[in-house]
Amino acid sequence: MASSKHVVRSVKRSGAAPIGFETLLTDDEASRIDTARQSAKSENTRRAYLADWRGYEAYCRLKHRPAFPATPSGIEAYITFLAHEAPSQSDVAAWQRLTAFNLPNGQKLGQRPAPPLSIQTVKRAVAGIRFVHGLVAHQQSYDGLDPFQDFGLRQTLNGLKRTSVRRAPISSRDAKIKRHGAHEQKAALTIDQLKLIVEKLNIATLSGMRDRTILCLGFSSGLRRSELAALQVEYIKLSRDHQFLTITLLYSKGNQQGDAQEVVTVPRLSEDDASICAVRAYLTWLEASGIRKGYVFSRIWPAQDLAIHPTGDRVAIEAGYGQGITPEAIKNVIKRAIIFAAIPGIDVDDFSGHSLRSGIATSMAEAGQEVYLIKEQLRHKNLSTTLRYIQSSNIRQSDAVLGAFSKRRETKSDER
Predict the structure, then answer these.
(1) To the nearest 10°, the Cα dihedral for 130, 136, 142, 147?
(2) Domains and their CATH numbers in the chain
(3) Per-residue pLDDT tens over the stretch 294-341
(4) pTM value surpassing 0.90
(5) Which of 249, 274, 281, 351 gives 216 a disulfide partner, CB atoms 3.0 to 4.6 angstroms apart?
(6) Rounded to the nearest 5 degrees, what angle is found at the Cα of 50, between the Cα atoms of 49 and 56?
(7) Radius of gyration of the chain (CA)
């Protein structure tokens, strides 16, 4: 059966057809190319870049100028607006109305953070605008159009690096939620808190078993919530002596192209910590759920969430063979478990999906582990990033200060 043809312009390079020649592609060929191009960036990155473009497009609409094709001066106008220390409040209000979006709970309306933004945020916005602009230019056969190479635009960015004023800290939690994009460091979950939370879970149900595995495995591995959601049985191996799990990550935040596989090791804990042992929880979860391949964590429908103990019934989760849970679901598991545990002094709003990752980093540091080992476990490229994850307790800080005085007394005594 004949299929329609797609015209794709050739790119000029050594040995290739010169610009102006055309290649006719079948539907199947065009579909394969489109799929490969969409996979060049992760879903989260594409979503962030699209938000950057919408912000720029809204500003252009506000100033009655076209967003495409972009001009260097138009981009400069937008980024200096984002970094402006005292922008027009009417412009800010109108721009935020145009960029309003629905929050996940569907009950509140979010908005973009008002200027001035940090230079890192501005640079990220430029990257997003450039990516989407490039896609539109390619689709409309403007492949040679790249205003981001302009010398003046680069000079403007360099000037903002020197003069940009970071946004002042936001005082209230409500303001932080409203001003989407303001980073709030969440609390690190401690080992003692993890034990209390896990003990409150109803592990006689599939959902309780799954949630325990998410909490324990997420804590001990230091995986990001997106990596937890994407885990597959085929890439988790149990050592011969059953003393640790080896998790192979084909893709991650720092390895979006899958150029080099990353390996994370999760140890089997002692009997004293058996309740939060990720190895035990993982093996129990696989046995109870019947999952043998595909995603480790799947959505559990109410009809499937049957009591497993003490009847010993086994319920295979069909969704586990094809449909995994989302990163957002990982965060919801953590928050739901904290709410259900109802531990005095613990506010659920202080915790998020990153609390597990920050928790193992802080626990390792407080146990005296070298920072470079923590960096390797979290797979950070920069040590400064690892240090931001380590939240020292007040007691440890107090002991450190007290140790300085004790050391001074010992030195004086030796001198005598």
Answers:
(1) -20
(2) 1-38 (no CATH), 41-178 (1.10.150.130), 191-394 (1.10.443.10)
(3) 889 887 766 555 544 433 334 444 444 446 788 888 888 989 998 888
(4) no
(5) 281
(6) 95
(7) 26
